[in-house]
Protein backbone atom coordinates (compact mmCIF):
# COMPACT_ATOMS: atom_id res chain seq x y z
CA UNK A 1 0.00 0.00 0.00
CA UNK A 2 1.37 3.44 -0.90
CA UNK A 3 1.40 6.24 1.65
CA UNK A 4 -1.27 7.99 -0.47
CA UNK A 5 -3.60 5.01 -0.07
CA UNK A 6 -2.62 4.48 3.56
CA UNK A 7 -3.50 8.06 4.53
CA UNK A 8 -6.91 7.80 2.90
CA UNK A 9 -7.59 4.56 4.74
CA UNK A 10 -6.34 6.02 8.03
CA UNK A 11 -8.47 9.17 7.73
CA UNK A 12 -11.57 7.13 6.93
CA UNK A 13 -10.96 4.70 9.78
CA UNK A 14 -10.54 7.42 12.42
CA UNK A 15 -13.15 9.90 11.18
CA UNK A 16 -15.74 8.97 13.85
CA UNK A 17 -13.31 9.68 16.74
CA UNK A 18 -12.05 13.04 15.56
CA UNK A 19 -14.85 15.49 16.34
CA UNK A 20 -14.23 18.92 14.89
CA UNK A 21 -11.39 17.72 12.65
CA UNK A 22 -11.34 18.07 8.88
CA UNK A 23 -13.54 15.27 7.53
CA UNK A 24 -12.40 12.85 4.82
CA UNK A 25 -14.61 12.32 1.80
CA UNK A 26 -14.76 9.74 -0.93
CA UNK A 27 -12.72 10.34 -4.06
CA UNK A 28 -14.39 12.99 -6.20
CA UNK A 29 -15.79 12.15 -9.61
CA UNK A 30 -14.52 13.98 -12.68
CA UNK A 31 -17.18 16.72 -12.72
CA UNK A 32 -16.81 17.49 -9.00
CA UNK A 33 -13.02 17.58 -9.23
CA UNK A 34 -13.09 19.95 -12.21
CA UNK A 35 -14.94 22.47 -10.03
CA UNK A 36 -12.21 22.35 -7.37
CA UNK A 37 -8.96 22.22 -9.35
CA UNK A 38 -7.78 22.70 -12.91
CA UNK A 39 -4.35 21.76 -14.26
CA UNK A 40 -2.59 23.06 -17.33
CA UNK A 41 0.98 23.01 -18.62
CA UNK A 42 2.77 26.27 -19.44
CA UNK A 43 5.92 26.60 -21.55
CA UNK A 44 9.11 28.31 -20.44
CA UNK A 45 11.34 27.76 -23.47
CA UNK A 46 14.81 26.26 -23.92
CA UNK A 47 17.65 26.65 -21.43
CA UNK A 48 21.37 27.13 -21.97
CA UNK A 49 21.86 23.50 -20.84
CA UNK A 50 19.88 22.12 -23.77
CA UNK A 51 16.86 21.35 -21.62
CA UNK A 52 13.38 22.87 -21.70
CA UNK A 53 11.40 24.62 -18.97
CA UNK A 54 7.72 24.07 -18.40
CA UNK A 55 5.43 24.08 -15.37
CA UNK A 56 2.40 22.28 -14.09
CA UNK A 57 -0.06 24.94 -12.98
CA UNK A 58 -2.77 23.88 -10.54
CA UNK A 59 -5.50 26.45 -9.91
CA UNK A 60 -7.69 25.80 -6.86
CA UNK A 61 -11.16 26.99 -5.94
CA UNK A 62 -11.44 29.54 -3.13
CA UNK A 63 -11.04 27.99 0.30
CA UNK A 64 -9.27 24.85 -0.92
CA UNK A 65 -5.64 23.80 -0.53
CA UNK A 66 -3.40 21.08 -1.87
CA UNK A 67 -0.17 19.65 -0.53
CA UNK A 68 3.61 19.93 -0.80
CA UNK A 69 5.80 16.90 -1.53
CA UNK A 70 6.12 16.37 2.27
CA UNK A 71 2.58 17.28 3.36
CA UNK A 72 2.70 16.65 7.11
CA UNK A 73 1.16 13.69 8.90
CA UNK A 74 -2.42 14.70 8.09
CA UNK A 75 -1.76 15.64 4.44
CA UNK A 76 -1.88 13.66 1.22
CA UNK A 77 1.38 13.68 -0.79
CA UNK A 78 1.06 14.31 -4.53
CA UNK A 79 2.10 11.55 -6.91
CA UNK A 80 3.06 12.12 -10.57
CA UNK A 81 2.67 9.63 -13.42
CA UNK A 82 4.48 10.56 -16.67
CA UNK A 83 4.01 7.22 -18.46
CA UNK A 84 1.99 8.63 -21.34
CA UNK A 85 4.66 11.18 -22.28
CA UNK A 86 6.81 11.00 -25.43
CA UNK A 87 10.51 11.80 -25.87
CA UNK A 88 10.83 12.41 -22.15
CA UNK A 89 14.27 11.70 -20.72
CA UNK A 90 14.62 13.20 -17.25
CA UNK A 91 12.28 15.47 -15.29
CA UNK A 92 13.44 17.75 -12.47
CA UNK A 93 10.93 19.66 -10.33
CA UNK A 94 11.56 22.83 -8.32
CA UNK A 95 9.03 23.22 -5.52
CA UNK A 96 8.17 26.79 -4.48
CA UNK A 97 8.26 27.42 -0.73
CA UNK A 98 4.99 26.12 0.78
CA UNK A 99 2.89 27.40 3.67
CA UNK A 100 2.39 25.72 7.03
CA UNK A 101 -1.24 25.22 8.11
CA UNK A 102 -2.68 24.31 11.51
CA UNK A 103 -5.91 22.37 11.06
CA UNK A 104 -7.47 21.50 14.43
CA UNK A 105 -4.06 20.90 15.98
CA UNK A 106 -2.71 18.95 12.99
CA UNK A 107 0.13 20.48 10.97
CA UNK A 108 -0.06 20.28 7.20
CA UNK A 109 2.09 21.88 4.51
CA UNK A 110 0.95 23.02 1.09
CA UNK A 111 -0.54 25.70 -1.13
CA UNK A 112 -3.73 27.70 -1.60
CA UNK A 113 -5.18 29.34 -4.72
CA UNK A 114 -2.49 28.33 -7.22
CA UNK A 115 0.62 26.20 -7.45
CA UNK A 116 3.02 26.74 -10.34
CA UNK A 117 5.45 23.80 -10.23
CA UNK A 118 8.46 24.37 -12.54
CA UNK A 119 9.59 21.30 -14.47
CA UNK A 120 12.95 21.09 -16.28
CA UNK A 121 12.80 18.54 -19.09
CA UNK A 122 15.68 16.67 -20.68
CA UNK A 123 14.53 15.15 -23.98
CA UNK A 124 15.32 11.51 -24.70
CA UNK A 125 16.33 12.55 -28.24
CA UNK A 126 17.39 16.05 -29.23
CA UNK A 127 15.37 17.73 -31.94
CA UNK A 128 12.30 15.55 -31.50
CA UNK A 129 8.92 16.83 -30.22
CA UNK A 130 8.27 16.44 -26.50
CA UNK A 131 4.80 15.55 -25.28
CA UNK A 132 3.92 15.76 -21.60
CA UNK A 133 1.03 13.45 -20.89
CA UNK A 134 0.13 11.95 -17.54
CA UNK A 135 -1.76 12.40 -14.32
CA UNK A 136 -1.38 13.68 -10.77
CA UNK A 137 -2.84 11.98 -7.71
CA UNK A 138 -3.41 14.68 -5.12
CA UNK A 139 -5.35 15.66 -2.07
CA UNK A 140 -7.62 18.69 -1.81
CA UNK A 141 -8.79 19.99 1.54
CA UNK A 142 -11.30 22.51 2.87
CA UNK A 143 -13.93 21.41 5.43
CA UNK A 144 -13.52 17.96 3.88
CA UNK A 145 -10.50 16.28 2.30
CA UNK A 146 -10.89 14.76 -1.15
CA UNK A 147 -8.38 12.55 -2.96
CA UNK A 148 -8.51 12.78 -6.73
CA UNK A 149 -6.68 12.44 -9.99
CA UNK A 150 -6.17 15.17 -12.61
CA UNK A 151 -4.72 14.64 -16.09
CA UNK A 152 -2.56 16.77 -18.37
CA UNK A 153 -1.69 16.54 -22.07
CA UNK A 154 0.61 19.09 -23.70
CA UNK A 155 3.13 19.31 -26.52
CA UNK A 156 6.12 21.40 -25.47
CA UNK A 157 6.71 24.50 -27.59
CA UNK A 158 10.48 24.55 -28.29
CA UNK A 159 10.27 28.18 -29.48
CA UNK A 160 8.57 29.55 -26.37
CA UNK A 161 10.17 32.41 -24.46
CA UNK A 162 10.63 32.81 -20.72
CA UNK A 163 7.34 32.68 -18.85
CA UNK A 164 6.91 35.21 -16.00
CA UNK A 165 4.89 32.73 -13.94
CA UNK A 166 7.67 30.15 -14.11
CA UNK A 167 10.33 32.76 -13.34
CA UNK A 168 8.34 33.86 -10.28
CA UNK A 169 7.88 30.27 -9.07
CA UNK A 170 11.61 29.57 -9.42
CA UNK A 171 12.36 32.71 -7.41
CA UNK A 172 10.16 31.32 -4.60
CA UNK A 173 12.29 28.22 -4.08
CA UNK A 174 13.98 27.79 -0.69
CA UNK A 175 17.54 29.07 -0.27
CA UNK A 176 20.32 26.51 -0.58
CA UNK A 177 22.35 25.76 2.55
CA UNK A 178 25.16 27.93 1.24
CA UNK A 179 22.85 30.85 0.44
CA UNK A 180 21.34 30.68 3.93
CA UNK A 181 24.69 30.59 5.72
CA UNK A 182 24.46 27.03 7.02
CA UNK A 183 27.84 26.24 8.60
CA UNK A 184 27.23 22.65 9.69
CA UNK A 185 24.53 19.96 9.63
CA UNK A 186 24.88 16.76 11.65
CA UNK A 187 22.44 13.89 12.24
CA UNK A 188 22.35 11.42 15.11
CA UNK A 189 20.48 8.15 14.47
CA UNK A 190 18.99 5.91 17.15
CA UNK A 191 16.70 2.86 16.90
CA UNK A 192 13.07 3.56 17.80
CA UNK A 193 10.04 1.36 18.37
CA UNK A 194 8.95 1.63 14.73
CA UNK A 195 12.18 2.43 12.87
CA UNK A 196 14.84 5.08 13.40
CA UNK A 197 14.90 8.32 15.38
CA UNK A 198 16.88 11.07 13.63
CA UNK A 199 18.00 14.22 15.43
CA UNK A 200 19.53 16.90 13.22
CA UNK A 201 21.58 19.79 14.58
CA UNK A 202 22.00 22.61 12.09
CA UNK A 203 24.27 25.60 12.68
CA UNK A 204 22.59 28.46 10.80
CA UNK A 205 21.12 31.94 11.29
CA UNK A 206 17.41 32.07 12.05
CA UNK A 207 15.07 31.83 9.05
CA UNK A 208 12.55 33.87 11.04
CA UNK A 209 10.56 32.40 13.87
CA UNK A 210 8.80 30.30 14.63
CA UNK A 211 10.74 27.91 12.40
CA UNK A 212 9.31 24.60 11.18
CA UNK A 213 11.74 21.92 10.02
CA UNK A 214 10.69 19.05 7.75
CA UNK A 215 12.82 15.92 7.44
CA UNK A 216 12.59 13.69 4.35
CA UNK A 217 14.36 10.34 4.19
CA UNK A 218 15.25 10.60 0.51
CA UNK A 219 14.43 6.89 0.22
CA UNK A 220 11.17 5.61 -1.33
CA UNK A 221 8.95 3.81 1.13
CA UNK A 222 10.38 5.52 4.22
CA UNK A 223 8.43 8.46 5.61
CA UNK A 224 8.92 10.78 8.56
CA UNK A 225 6.62 11.76 11.40
CA UNK A 226 6.01 15.43 12.20
CA UNK A 227 9.31 17.03 13.16
CA UNK A 228 9.92 18.49 16.61
CA UNK A 229 11.77 21.78 16.06
CA UNK A 230 13.59 23.96 18.59
CA UNK A 231 16.51 26.37 18.64
CA UNK A 232 19.48 26.88 20.94
CA UNK A 233 21.24 30.07 19.85
CA UNK A 234 22.69 29.52 16.38
CA UNK A 235 21.77 25.82 16.41
CA UNK A 236 18.44 24.54 15.10
CA UNK A 237 17.45 21.13 16.45
CA UNK A 238 15.04 18.98 14.45
CA UNK A 239 13.96 15.46 15.45
CA UNK A 240 11.67 12.97 13.74
CA UNK A 241 10.94 9.25 13.57
CA UNK A 242 11.51 7.51 10.24
CA UNK A 243 9.19 4.60 9.50
CA UNK A 244 9.18 2.10 6.63
CA UNK A 245 5.84 1.48 4.88
CA UNK A 246 6.54 -2.25 5.15
CA UNK A 247 7.02 -1.96 8.90
CA UNK A 248 10.41 -3.67 8.79
CA UNK A 249 13.97 -2.63 9.51
CA UNK A 250 15.86 -0.50 7.01
CA UNK A 251 19.22 1.15 6.38
CA UNK A 252 19.49 4.92 6.06
CA UNK A 253 21.88 6.98 3.96
CA UNK A 254 22.61 10.28 5.75
CA UNK A 255 23.64 11.87 2.44
CA UNK A 256 20.11 11.27 1.08
CA UNK A 257 18.37 13.02 3.98
CA UNK A 258 16.74 16.33 3.10
CA UNK A 259 15.87 18.93 5.72
CA UNK A 260 13.76 21.94 4.82
CA UNK A 261 13.50 24.79 7.30
CA UNK A 262 10.42 26.97 6.84
CA UNK A 263 10.69 30.36 8.52
CA UNK A 264 8.80 33.64 8.42
CA UNK A 265 11.61 35.33 6.42
CA UNK A 266 12.67 32.54 4.09
CA UNK A 267 13.05 28.77 3.70
CA UNK A 268 16.26 26.72 3.54
CA UNK A 269 16.86 23.43 1.67
CA UNK A 270 19.63 21.33 3.27
CA UNK A 271 20.79 18.19 1.43
CA UNK A 272 22.47 15.54 3.54
CA UNK A 273 24.09 15.69 6.98
CA UNK A 274 27.23 14.39 8.66
CA UNK A 275 27.32 11.88 11.50
CA UNK A 276 26.72 13.61 14.80
Explain this structure to me?
- The chain is mainly beta.
- It folds into two domains: 3-171, Immunoglobulin-like (Sandwich), CATH 2.60.40.1250; 175-275, Immunoglobulin-like, CATH 2.60.40.
- The protein is built from three helices and 21 strands.
- The strands form five sheets. Strands 13, 14, 16, 17, 18 and 21 form a six-stranded mixed beta sheet that branches.
- Strand 13 (184-191) and strand 14 form a beta hairpin.
- The longest helix has 12 residues, at 3-14.
- The protein is globular and about 50 Å long.
- It starts with a helix and ends with a strand.
- Mean pLDDT is 89; it is low at 1-23.
CATH class of the largest domain: Mainly Beta
Decide which structural class fits the backbone: mainly beta
CATH structural fold name of the largest domain: Immunoglobulin-like
Span between termini: 33 Å
Pick out the low-confidence regions: 1-23
Query: Can you summarize the main beta sheet?
Result: 6 strands, mixed
Helix content, binned percent: under 10%
What's the rounded overall pLDDT mean?
A: 89
- Kindly report the name of the CATH homologous superfamily of the largest domain: Thiol:disulfide interchange protein DsbD, N-terminal domain
CATH architecture of the largest domain: Sandwich
As a whole number of angstroms, the C-alpha radius of gyration is: 19 Å
How many beta-strand runs? 21
Q: What's the helix count? A: 3
List the domain count as a whole number.
2
Strand percentage: over 45%
List the secondary-structure elements in sequence, H or E. HEHEEEEEEEEEEHEEEEEEEEEE
Amino acid sequence: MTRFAALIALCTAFAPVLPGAVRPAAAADRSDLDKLVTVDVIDGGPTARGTYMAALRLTLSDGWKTYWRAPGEAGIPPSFDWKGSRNLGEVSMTWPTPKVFDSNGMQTIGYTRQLVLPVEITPARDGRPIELRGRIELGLCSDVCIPGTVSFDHRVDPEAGRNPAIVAALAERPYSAREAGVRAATCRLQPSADGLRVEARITMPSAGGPEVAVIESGTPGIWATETETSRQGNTLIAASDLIAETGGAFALDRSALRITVLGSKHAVDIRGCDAG
